[in-house]
Amino acid sequence: MKNDIIQHLLERYREGTLSDSELAELNRLTHRDEVMAQAERQAGGIVRRRRSALFSAAGLMVAGLAAWSLLGPRHAEAPMVAEASVPAVVAPQPAAVEHLAPTTPATVQRAAVRTAPVGTKKAAPATTAARTAPRAEEPVVVCNNQCEADSVINDIWKFLTV
């Protein structure tokens, strides 16, 4: 009998001829308020679980990124070693001419002609035995990232002056 009443009220609802009192009766018979409350509770639980999963994943990614940045690979772990290299021979440059007052050819002044580039050393005269014999030991500058600056500079100076 209850099902017949519900079917009759639903048919009138579809037709659009349901009165307010009949709508209230239909809602009471179908337990609409209880069903809607249960559906809202389930939807709230689903939303909370999704948010907690999202926040957990974000927290794990932040923790992983922090651990990687703190414990990740170090770029300066290997000691740095300076290598001795022979500088390339620089060919003499053509004479440089400077024009201090370029108004007329009579006022042109010429600069001193350089025969060798600035900063080159002239080789010291060596004996023929020293030229043919190989060097016994070349100084090598070795340092890692924990050396003091003064000791590195002193080693480089010794290397360059030998």
What does this structure look like?
The chain is 51% helix and 0% strand. Helix 1 (2-15) crosses helix 2 (20-30). With 162 residues, it is mainly alpha-helical. The N and C termini lie far apart (115 Å).
Features:
single chain; rod-shaped; 162 residues
Q: How large is the share of residues in beta strands?
A: under 5%
Q: Taking all residues together, what is the mean pLDDT?
A: 74
Distance between the termini: 115 Å
| Uncertain segments | 106-114
What count of helical segments does DSSP give?
Answer: 5
Shape: rod-shaped
Strand element count: 0
- CA-based gyration radius: 46 Å
Question: Which structural class do you get from the secondary structure elements?
Answer: mainly alpha
Helix share of residues? 40-55%
N-to-C SSE string, H for helix and E for strand: HHHHH
Largest sheet: none
